Amino acid sequence: MLPVFTTSDQEMQQERYAAKQARRQRQPGAGQKGKLPTSSEKLVFIQSYWKVYPTYDVLGCQFGLARSNACTNVHALWSVLERTLKTLGVFPGRSFSSVEELHAACGEIRELLIDATEREQNRPQDDEKQRDTYSGKKNAIPSKIW
């Protein structure tokens, strides 16, 4: 996975350089190097974020970064890891437009269990929308999932 991640990171960096080339006055590469200089450190950083979803404070503390730099690195490396997983063909599907598309993504899985939870939402002010979201419960207003 590391070679594909490294290639994806370099490709996306070249794309960013090309996009900013028109207004750039100096050559890219100068300046202070980041706290995550190698591709392996970047991969461990973004994988640990995807696995645990810590706060940016905790993530920054683990890798010696400030909260803002942890956030910046997560957003920058998110798309790199996404491209890497799509290249390897192991990126998980998030939404499907049809049942056939879901069956194609699941392959030979015979049974599929979907776990869903109700989430609270603000009470709608419109009477029609209130009736649509009413679940029969007294206190919290969870959104209906079906």
TrEMBL record:
Residues 35-86 form the Transposase Helix-turn-helix domain. Residues 117-135 have a biased composition (Basic and acidic residues). Signal peptide: none annotated. Residues 1-36, 117-146 are annotated as: Disordered. Residues 1-11 have a biased composition (Polar residues). It comes from the Bacteria. This is Transposase Helix-turn-helix domain-containing protein. It comes from Candidatus Moduliflexus flocculans.
